[in-house]
Specification:
Number of helices: 14
Shape: globular
Number of domains: 1
Radius of gyration: 19 Å
Helix content: over 70%
Oligomer: single chain
Structural class: mainly alpha
Order of helices and strands: HHHHHHHHHHHHHH
């Protein structure tokens, strides 16, 4: 995928983009009005659920998304359980990356693969350790957000034409568990990125290991293609740097409350509209969204130190993910 060209359209994206925007903005708006904005920021993380099985019919998503939601909740619970001990949290990053990678690849979950399981684990550990919200309330808010996201994703089923659409059985939607040659290679890359990323993170700053590993896992993706590894790495590096600049501009506006909810919803909508066509452009929107969301949850919106750290962490992780692509043999790699 060229930096200067868009991939072909794969059908209308606005329904999924609208669902994702509502899933992230409504919890923040509602809980802000209720006087508990921090709960809304946590619940908004449930929007990650909607990003899975995006090409499936609503009836098929109803069978797949509950498993994605349970996986996200389990990852967050692990982060909450280990929060406060950076060594244990770092070891947990490796474990969560490997387990979620094995399950995602083994059951053909599809994009975005193990990425958000790793990120939500790390974010949960970071927010709870920061003391911004109690562990029990954190998990309750996240569970509520996941349930709301499921309801949004499955809302088309209120229409009979969606209910009457034939749906494949679960064993076809999530075939496995089985790791073929491509899946084994992807999992090996995840293992290497997780281990090396954590070791680098421990040397740089133990609190940031999850971001380095998450950046590397994002580059790996779900396609066992050698050239794609280097392209996604380049896209992530450039997109993140530009996105950090956009975050700085947005942070100068000091968004909060309803305005922050609307801003995050707009960013999420833009991401889903372009992510399958131009990865670098999507990162321009993903970077400020994640920085604003995590900054709101921890009270660090506008911190230049955080922006600089995230750029460094992403560059390191993206370089690791891209470099791991050399594991694909040239003779058998399916260049695309």
């Amino acid at each position: 995928m060229s930096l200067f060209a868009f991939a072909p359209s794969r059908g209308p994206r606005w329904p999924l983009a609208t669902q994702a925007a509502l899933a992230i903005s409504v919890p923040i708006a509602v809980m802000t009005l209720a006087g508990h904005p921090a709960w809304g920021y946590v619940a908004a993380s449930g929007a990650f659920t909607i990003l899975y099985a995006g090409s499936y019919a609503a009836a098929e998503r109803a069978r797949v998304l509950p498993f994605a939601a349970l996986g996200l909740l389990a990852s967050a619970a692990a982060g909450v359980l280990l929060a406060g001990d950076q060594v244990r949290v770092s070891i947990g990053v490796v474990v969560v990356a490997i387990v979620s990678g094995a399950l995602a690849f083994g059951f053909r979950l599809g994009p975005p693969g193990p990425l958000f399981f790793v990120l939500l684990y790390g974010l949960s550990a970071h927010v709870v350790a920061d003391g911004a919200i109690a562990a029990g309330i954190y998990l309750a808010a996240l569970a509520s957000g996941l349930a709301f996201s499921l309801a949004i994703a499955l809302s088309p089923l209120v229409l009979r034409r969606h209910r009457d659409t034939p749906a494949r059985p679960l064993r076809e939607l999530l075939p496995g568990p089985a790791l073929d040659a491509d899946a084994r290679m992807l999992l090996l890359r995840v293992v290497l990125v997780a281990v090396v990323g954590v070791l680098l993170g421990l040397a740089i700053d133990p609190e940031r290991t999850y971001w380095i590993v998450g950046s590397g896992v994002a580059v790996i993706g779900v396609a066992a293609v050698r050239r794609a590894a280097f392209q996604r790495g380049l896209h992530r590096m450039l997109g993140t740097v530009v996105g950090a600049g956009l975050f700085l501009l947005l942070a100068l506006l000091h968004p909060a409350g309803i305005w922050l909810a609307l801003l995050l919803g707009a960013l999420q909508f833009a991401i889903e509209m372009v992510v399958v066509r131009h990865y670098a452009l999507a990162l321009v929107f993903i970077t400020p969204l994640v920085l604003l969301l995590t900054g709101a949850a921890t009270g660090t919106i506008g911190s230049l130190d955080v922006v600089g750290e995230r750029i460094v962490d992403t560059l390191v992780g993206a370089a690791l993910g891209a470099a791991s692509g050399v594991l694909h043999p040239r003779a058998t790699a399916r260049e695309a």
